[in-house]
Prior knowledge:
The chain is α/β, with parallel strands linked by helices. Helix content is 46%, strand content 20%. An 8-stranded mixed beta barrel has the order 1-2-4-5-6-7-8-9, surrounded by 4 helices. A hairpin with a 3-residue loop joins strand 2 and strand 3 (46-48). The longest helix is centred in the first third of the chain and has 23 residues, at 63-85. It starts with a helix and ends with a helix. Manganese (II) ion binds next to loops. The site of sodium ion has 4 residues, from strand 6.
Amino acid sequence: HGLTTALPAALDRGEFFIEYQPLVHLGDGSVRGAEALVRWLHPQHGVLGPDRFIPLAEHTGLIVPLGRWVLEESVRQAGEWRERGGDSDPFRINVNLSPCQLTHPGLVQDTVDILERAGVAPEALCLEVTESALIGADDDLLKPLRRLAEMGVDIALDDFGTGYSNLANLRRLPVSVLKLDRSFTQGMQQFPADPVDLKIVEGIVSLAHSLNLAVTVEGVETGAQAEQLRILGCDTAQGWYYARPGPPDRLHQLALVDA
Ligand code: G
Ligand code: G
Ligand code: MN
Ligand code: NA
């Protein structure tokens, strides 16, 4: 496969770049942070999204150095934003972790080193792990996440609600944020939303809050969705309604407007 064999050289040549999508507080609309989303500027094919190359990188193991680069670069960027924004405005960075990175022994030390080099506090970092990656996870897999959580790093359960995980299982996971899958947000498109969808989200939010977990919703495309999700008690939102993923400078401007 051409793309697969081109991956290592692409990393060496600096062909990957990161776009940032803001995370917005539903209560007051302020920008609280951003999710880092990697892209590949391929010399022949142009910009490729993660769906095109993350599975290949996972298959070959290149996801470990690539994921480390994404973490390093986005934490460095977050440190720069913090410096410009001042400490009155704690700005957080969300970074996706692939299951292969979880089983790599260097994860905890790499994260510590990266935060230290950038002068960023662990509390400013949120690592997103998909629900399906943690279904049936044994203690060996959870250990590095527990250590990171003890340091103050937030762990978010990404795409939550699609993995059919046992809800009671949540208590065992070192997570502090549930990221509700986009399919729930899609159910809020009409106003009023489908009553069954409303009940499901209401139940998830109430369970999450009773376990001291914050709820982030993704895929918010309209003001009506944002309003219904706010009323349901969701804490933070992300989606095209606020901003598409974009270059770091644009995000800085957004954050300043709201500061
Ligand atoms: O960028 P886009 O909005 O198309 O994201 C598509 C998927 O790619 C999302 O599920 C996201 O979690 C994943 N993704 C984006 N960046 C990264 C990354 O740096 N590492 C991993 N493992 N997944 C990523
Ligand atoms: O990690 P995750 O797969 O959840 O990454 C977010 C993905 O969702 C990215 O592919 C991003 O481009 C996409 N996305 C972000 N906001 C919206 C939105 O409002 N609507 C839709 N359809 N997709 C979105
Ligand atoms: Mn994500
Ligand atoms: Na997601």
